[in-house]
Structures are given as structure tokens and as C-alpha cells.
Specification:
mainly beta; 14-stranded antiparallel barrel; Porin; elongated; 448 residues; 4 helices; 18 strands
Length: 448
């Protein structure tokens, strides 16, 4: 085995993480109908996506509802005219709503999920000086599962809540044995090293709550709270054994402890309304407060220690490096407005064609990157469109509705110029811009 202690230590950098900062539903939405409406559905969501947008909407469903779909999101993000190579996101979405009753109290259970078809989760290493699209690069590469329950104690009130689960990896890396150093004209290594890698998939849970009020038959009001969550990725590595330098054999031990916030979910509070001026038309407006000021840096906090029992007078080893210093990212809170409009065109007694449009504006929470850090981002304008087919009571076996929904979403990230305070900065000045395109479909079967 060809190896040396410096090479092995350098290889450990490959197991350090790069952060994923929020769930896929935060970025691209959940379900084609809700996505097409720009996510402005906290007051009128009734399908499986209520598990994310407002759990109380589960109690307002007419009957058992099953949904399955797929979406694909492609990033075209660039810096100084060069593609930043941000991976696409694609996967299966789906869930169910199962209403019932406890005595005279209407009750419902729901579950929703996003399963990426490329990977279960991802961890990468990077320095805080390295530019990265921190809100998109690794943000959505997670399994998302949400389970909730809801009740409707009054005709004008529904209340619900539950837990959302995110998955990530934890791991450890170890090498033991004897490393033989070459001597004289000997160029081949004769090291005997054993390595061990231990990794597993872990979950982080965070609660969410919601309520829906109906002060008027044509007006619904939604209020939602989603709690903060952090997935701590700890990587422990140890290299221990003997360095064989021909004349002497020296016991050595190298340890690395790394801690990273591999996924950060900011707290969110949503206030929304849905107004129906006529039966066929609904207009939704949501305002979401996002607690980005609590953002934890995705840069690894690491500590390394090298212990070598070298006889006195042979060589003097340098001191162990100081623990890594991580700059405060200084993110800022933001209010995100969402607007959605849906018109349900009735073309036959049992056939309906919904037409949907939505808009979202997200002001970047990242301050100007004039110093050491390089968290790349710009404002985001999200335009979405959608349509579908709703077939009511298609047969005796389905006394409900069959729905097929499509959506297309375009995110425009206008140019943002970053000018560094230090003219000799490691990265220098840069311009960032881009687009993100997301499209998908959802098939739903409802039983009333």
C-alpha cells in the first residue's frame, strides 16, 4: 500500500461537509398546484401539500386523497460569466390526506414526502473563502418527510400540527497500522495500514403548527409556524500506528474533530389569506417572516492534534494548528410576499380546467460579501404558471375526483456585484446572476 501520513491527513478533507440550508419545499414548493400558485396557499390548501404549507388544511379535505408526482429543477447560476456547476434537483413527491372523526370531532391525518432520485443526502467540504451559492448549492439535497394531524372543532376553525423530518449523514474515519518511509534509493512503500469508515443516515425533527379561520364564507385566513432546525454533522477521524523510518520506529497518532451545521432550517411565521370573489376564482396572499439572522455558518469548525513520540534531539515537530476560526455570517431576517391566482374553468358538468399563476419576491438575506466570506446570492423573483384537469366522479369505483396538475416555475436572480475591501483578496471582485427552472406534475385521486 502506497501511503504517507501527510497524504492521508490531506485525504481526510474529503469527508468534511458542505451545508444544506433548508428543505426542498422551501425552495421549489411541494405539489404542482401549490407551486403554480407561488406557495400562497396557507389559507386554502387541502391536499397533501398542507403538511408543509398549513397542517390545519388537512381537516378541511373532503375525503381520502392520494397524490404522487415528480419535479425537476435546473440551476443556471454563474459568477463572472462562468457556470457555477450547481447540481440539478429532481425527485418524487407525494403523500396522502386521511380524514375521519373522533366522536363528533372532525379529524385528519396527513403525510407528505420528497424523495430525491439521485442521492439520499450529500456532504461536501469547502472553505469560507471559497465562493458558493450557499442557498442553492446543497440546500435541497435532502429527504423531506412531514407527518401531521388536524382537527376542526368549529365550522370556522381548523387546527393542525406535527413534525417534519430531514435526513443527513454522520460518519467517522479511522486508519491504523504501520507506515514505512522510503530510505536511500528505495522508492516503494511497504506500509501495512487498515482503514475503517463508519457512516449512517440520521434525521432531524422540527415541529410545525397551523390554523385556518373562516370569518366569512368567501374569506379564509391562515397562520403557520415552522420551528428552526439544525442537522449537526460531526466527523471524527483518527490515524494511529507506527511510522517505520528504518533506523527507528515512532508511535504516532493524528486526530481530527470536525463539527458542521450540515442543514439549517430557519424559523418561519406565515400569515395568509384566500379570497373568493366568485365561486370560480380564488386569490391568495401570503407574507412569510424568515429568521435568517439565526443562520449558522456552514463552514466546518475543526480541531487537529498530532502526537508523535520522537526521541529527543532527532527532530522538533511544529505545534499543533489552532482550531479553525469561522466568521459570523451576519445574515438578516426577511419578509417574503407570495401571490397566487386560480381560476377554475368549468367546461362540462364533470370536467374542470384550473388556470393558475403565482409570484414570489425573496430579498437576499446575505449582506454584501466585502470581507473574507463569499456566500453568493442575489434577490430572487419567482414566476410560476400551472394548469391541469379535474374529472369529477369518473366512475362508480371513484366517487370523488381525479386530478392531474402541471406546473412550471422560473426564478430570476438579477446581477449582484461584489466589491472586496481588500484589493489583494483571495477571490477578488465578482458579479453573480442566474436563473432556475423548475417543472413537474402531480396526479391525485380523491374519494369523497
Amino acid at each position: 500500500m502506497r501511503a504517507s501520513w501527510p497524504v492521508l491527513a490531506f485525504a481526510l478533507a474529503g469527508v468534511l461537509p458542505r451545508a444544506a440550508l433548508a428543505s426542498p419545499a422551501d425552495t421549489f414548493g411541494l405539489g404542482s398546484r401549490s407551486t403554480a400558485l407561488g406557495g400562497a396557499v396557507s389559507a386554502d390548501v387541502r391536499d397533501f401539500s398542507a403538511n408543509y404549507y398549513n397542517p390545519s388544511g388537512l381537516a378541511l379535505a373532503r375525503g381520502l386523497d392520494l397524490s404522487a408526482g415528480y419535479y425537476y429543477a435546473d440551476h443556471a447560476l454563474e459568477m463572472n460569466g462562468k457556470d457555477s456547476q450547481v447540481d440539478p434537483v429532481r425527485g418524487i413527491v407525494g403523500g396522502l390526506v386521511a380524514p375521519g372523526s373522533i366522536g363528533f370531532l372532525p379529524f385528519a391525518f396527513g403525510i407528505a414526502t420528497f424523495l430525491p432520485d439521485d442521492r439520499l443526502s450529500r456532504a461536501r467540504a469547502s472553505r469560507q473563502e471559497d465562493p458558493r451559492w450557499v442557498l442553492y448549492d446543497n440546500r435541497t439535497q435532502l429527504i423531506f418527510i412531514s407527518a401531521n394531524i388536524a382537527i376542526r372543532p368549529f365550522e370556522w376553525l381548523a387546527v393542525g400540527g406535527g413534525l417534519t423530518y430531514l435526513a443527513a449523514t454522520r460518519g467517522a474515519f479511522g486508519i491504523t497500522g504501520t507506515a514505512v518511509l522510503p530510505a536511500g534509493d528505495k522508492t516503494e512503500y511497504d506500509s501495512q495500514l487498515r482503514h475503517e469508515v463508519d457512516a449512517d443516515l440520521t434525521t432531524e425533527r422540527y415541529p410545525e403548527f397551523g390554523l385556518t379561520l373562516r370569518p366569512h364564507e368567501r374569506l379564509d385566513i391562515g397562520l403557520v409556524y415552522r420551528h428552526e432546525a439544525q442537522i449537526q454533522l460531526d466527523v471524527d477521524a483518527e490515524l494511529s500506528g507506527t511510522v517505520d523510518a528504518t533506523l527507528i520506529k515512532v508511535p504516532a497518532r493524528y486526530t481530527l474533530d470536525s463539527n458542521t451545521v450540515n442543514a439549517f432550517i430557519p424559523r418561519q411565521v406565515v400569515l395568509g389569506a384566500s379570497y373568493r370573489p366568485v365561486d370560480e376564482l380564488s386569490i391568495g396572499l401570503d407574507l412569510t417572516w424568515v429568521d435568517w439572522s439565526s443562520f449558522q455558518s456552514p463552514v466546518s469548525r475543526s480541531r487537529t492534534t498530532l502526537e508523535v513520540n520522537v526521541p529527543p534531539g532527532i527532530i522538533e515537530l511544529p505545534p499543533n494548528p489552532k482550531p479553525s476560526q469561522v466568521e459570523d455570517p451576519g445574515f438578516e431576517d426577511r419578509i417574503v410576499p407570495r401571490l397566487g391566482v386560480e381560476y377554475r374553468l368549468r367546461v362540462a358538468p364533470d370536467l374542470e380546467l384550473p388556470l393558475r399563476a403565482g409570484y414570489v419576491y425573496e430579498h437576499t438575506p446575505i449582506p454584501p460579501q466585502t470581507g473574507v466570506t463569499n456566500y453568493v446570492d442575489t434577490d430572487r423573483h419567482v414566476l410560476s404558471l400551472g394548469t391541469g384537469v379535474v374529472l369529477h366522479e369518473p366512475g362508480a369505483l371513484l366517487p370523488g375526483a381525479l386530478r392531474f396538475d402541471l406546473h412550471a416555475q422560473l426564478s430570476l436572480l438579477p446581477t449582484r456585484v461584489t466589491l472586496k475591501d481588500n484589493p489583494a483578496d483571495y477571490v477578488g471582485d465578482y458579479r453573480a446572476r442566474g436563473t432556475i427552472f423548475n417543472a413537474g406534475a402531480t396526479l391525485s385521486v380523491g374519494f369523497e
